[in-house]
Design a protein that fits this description.
about 280 residues, alpha+beta, 4-stranded antiparallel β-sheet, two-stranded parallel ribbon, elongated
Length: about 280
């Protein structure tokens, strides 16, 4: 046993709250460099020490994930890697998250979709097949019962529950479509995020319902907004990521979750300000 590990064990086994707090702070502040030392504490027979060690490891990983996503926000250009960003966001807000299992699932869904698309000739037929599979067979739909919920903005949860809000359901369609060689664009329509494949507009939140321009006019009219063709322009990855973060901030405001609101607002501010400087 190393002298440092022995010293840590002695301090933690005393079970003094203030001592434990100081030790945890010191080990967490050292970041990933301290992981081997903390992991060695898991081998002790003292369950209390093992619990403390697991808490420290969780906090170290969470801090690293939060800083990693902040770095993405600082360097995210207009057409950055949106998928990598939403995985990183999930990792920052969900300790222990691993994207590998989701990638396997997405690939399996895409293979099924690709087979279904083989006989589709027009863009409309492709969207009908896409919606029949994702909404009809897999059950993706809007979460109308609990709309303002953190999990609706996190893509892993959307893939698990097959429920979400307009923008994250559109993201699911985009990610699965991409793997099936079907291009789907997000459309940042004010008040209701939708999607488009070539000339066909559709609504992932309402089970892939095909939309007309008239439908879009109605959506805007309910907000006293005048329709313009620019509203149907594809959203850039940065615009989508900004809207995802804005949704999370709104949810945390409603929940009075100040700690999470401050954290996400920090990312949002960095991303939005970077966008403003480059326009």
């Amino acid at each position: 046993m190393s002298s440092q590990r022995a010293a840590l064990l002695r301090l933690l086994e005393e079970n003094d709250p203030e001592t434990v707090r100081l030790v945890k702070e010191q080990l967490v502040s050292g970041g990933r460099n301290n992981i081997p030392e903390v992991e060695s504490l898991l081998e002790t027979d003292n369950e209390d020490v093992s619990i403390i060690a697991r808490d420290i490891l969780t906090q170290i990983e969470r801090n690293a994930a939060e800083e990693s996503f902040l770095s993405i926000c600082k360097n995210f250009d207009e057409y950055g890697d949106l998928e990598a960003a939403v995985w990183s966001l999930a990792r920052a807000l969900t300790p222990g998250f691993n994207a590998e299992a989701y990638e396997t699932r997405l690939q399996a869904w895409a293979r099924q979709l690709k087979r279904r698309l083989a006989g589709a000739i027009s863009s409309r037929e492709r969207i009908l097949e896409l919606s029949a599979y994702l909404a009809g067979e897999l059950g993706f739909h809007g979460n109308t019962d609990n709309y303002y919920c953190e999990k609706n903005s996190l893509i892993p949860n959307v893939l698990d529950t097959r429920m979400g809000i307009p923008i994250t359901l559109a993201l699911a369609y985009i990610m699965i479509g991409k793997r099936a060689d079907l291009r789907i664009d997000g459309i940042n329509l004010p008040g209701h995020f939708i999607a488009r494949h070539e000339d066909v507009l559709f609504d992932p939140f309402h089970k892939g319902r095909i939309l007309t321009q008239g439908d879009c006019r109605e959506i805007l009219a309910k907000q006293n907004l005048v329709f313009d063709l620019k509203h149907l322009s594809p959203a850039t990855p940065r615009q989508i990521l900004i809207r995802v973060l804005a949704n999370l901030i709104y949810v945390y405001d409603l929940e009075e979750n100040e700690e999470s609101r401050v954290l996400v607002n920090r990312w949002f501010t960095v991303l939005a300000n970077k966008s403003s400087r480059e326009l």
